[in-house]
Amino acid sequence: ISRLTYSVTNRLNAKTVAGTGQEAVRWELIRFALGQAYDLPPNKQSERFSDVVGDLIVQPSEQFRFRGDARYDVYGRGFQTANSDISASVRDVSATVGTRFDDRAEIEFVKGELQARLASFLEVRGGTNWDIRAGVPVEHRFGANLRFQCWGISLEYIDRHKSEDEFRFSVNLLGLGSLR
Known about the structure:
By secondary structure, this protein is mainly beta. Helices cover about 0% and strands about 70% of the residues. The protein is built from no helices and twelve strands. The chain has strands spanning about 1-15, 25-40, 50-60, 65-75, 80-90, 95-100, 105-120, 120-130, 135-145, 150-160, 165-175, 175-180. A twelve-stranded antiparallel β-sheet has the order 1-2-3-4-5-6-7-8-9-10-11-12, with no helix packed on it.
């Protein structure tokens, strides 16, 4: 199958006013992307046009960020997926709250994450995912990263709803790769 994919991306960049002897801070304030694909020649088993995919990121400052993405079916089935995240960071602590929706897989989640750098070499994190439709927690994650000059250790415990718990341990050679 030959496929033609087209998209458009719009960006709005921001810049602070620099003080005397300082550099201005530059960042991407808003990014909006929209895309779709078209099959050439049409595939007899499927429709010609793919879903329209959109992605929006808004970051008014280093402390706050919003990201959302969605997939819309152009043949009358409406939104197939939609995800959103709002993040806030203050010094060494960041928090994220988000949603996940997938119509085909019948998934509808609310998630929350918290991450904190406790020392220059120690970072801890925790998160939860709740299934809105069933009203039950799907999984809780707790982890820690220890980083030193050229190596690091990552530990993570995942507590899943149906007793499919997992413990992950990895040793990372920073800048080279990882071993799990």
